[in-house]
Amino acid sequence: MRNTAKITTAVLAAGALTFGLSACGSGSDSGKKDADAPLTVAATPTPQGEILTYVKDHLAQKAGLKLEVKEFTDYVTPNTAVQQGQVDANYFQHKPYLDDFNKKNGTDIVPVPGGSVHLEPLGVYSKSVKKLADLGKGATIALPNDTTNEARALKLLEANGVIKLKAGAGYEATPKDVTSNPKDVKFKELEAAQLPRSLGDVDAAVINGNYALEAKLSPAKDALVAESATGNPYANFLAVKKGNENDPRVKKLAELLTSPEVKKFIEDKYDGAVIPAF
């Protein structure tokens, strides 16, 4: 996740945000009309869009929910769309990313209580080596260029002995925090969506799970190493603009996203590449 560039007038005027959608008011004053209106959710295509589409096709109608899914291929627009009321909610991010986005952009987007749905293990991929130990001196590793996922990638490399970070390096760690680099690896910082396409130009790349899946890469089968689900803070969840947490439609979707049916769908479809977080 995600390029955390400042929200600008140009971004807000972009065609991607001009859906002409309605019914995005605060849950505290939503009336019957709002409760019956379609709930529009922004999501990245894989796996979030696929999970939402499963809910729409198999669960929503029976639960009395009209669900619309708007897919985006970046990590900024789903938040700007929620903040500006162009969509009702989004499903694409983890808490460290959202915290960083809110801090840098002055937004007030919050997780929906009970809305953690899944984890996409971050993995290291390569076309030139079969294991990290085979990386040569001066090898180039591509990293996500947004704050939280770059730190996440560096911590994965540290956990597997490639580098060491200075003590206390947290969710904002950068290559400047590397204190030990025995192989003198170089880092190439790229927008997360570009990482799969970089594999032909670098020795390895640390790729977010959703973009790996879109590129037909499996964290469970193709990654040299991947994150563990144990104690992992990077679960993805449903999020809304503060004040809309009690929208009955949002609550209903949160329940459906953490249902036994969705858990089974995730386990059956992704075979370990996406892991239920509930």
From TrEMBL:
A lipid is attached at C24 (S-diacylglycerol cysteine). One of its GO terms (cellular component) is membrane. It is found in: Membrane. Keywords: Lipoprotein, Membrane, Palmitate, Signal. Gene3D superfamilies: Periplasmic binding protein-like II (3.40.190.10). InterPro entries: Lipoprotein_NlpA. Residues 1-23 form the signal peptide. Pfam families: Lipoprotein_9. Its main location: membrane. It is a lipid-anchor. PANTHER family: D-METHIONINE-BINDING LIPOPROTEIN METQ (PTHR30429), METHIONINE-BINDING LIPOPROTEIN METQ (PTHR30429:SF0). Belongs to the nlpA lipoprotein family. This is Lipoprotein.
